[in-house]
Design a protein that fits this description.
Blueprint (H helix, E strand, L loop, with lengths): L5 H7 L13 H10 L10 H4 L6 H10 L2
Length: 67
């Protein structure tokens, strides 16, 4: 899958996992997490992203905390 604007996305990518090969490649990241039944970092607050728990339950908890 090809992703446009990689450099632009890298600057705004919220993922803190240093070994991520999809950093800044939003379409690849979303496809990867979708296949795993997860949500990408950009769906979470900064605090929620740092847990690296990409589950729906974690997303709901994060959203409830940050209303």
């Amino acid at each position: 899958m090809s992703c446009p604007n990689k450099e632009k996305n890298q600057r705004s990518c919220r993922c803190t996992y240093s070994g991520c090969s999809r950093h800044g490649l939003c379409c690849e990241c979303i496809a990867y997490h979708n296949r795993a039944g997860e949500f990408p970092a950009c769906f979470f607050s900064q605090e929620g992203e740092r847990t690296w728990d990409r589950s729906f339950a974690s997303l709901v908890r994060d959203r409830e905390r940050n209303r």
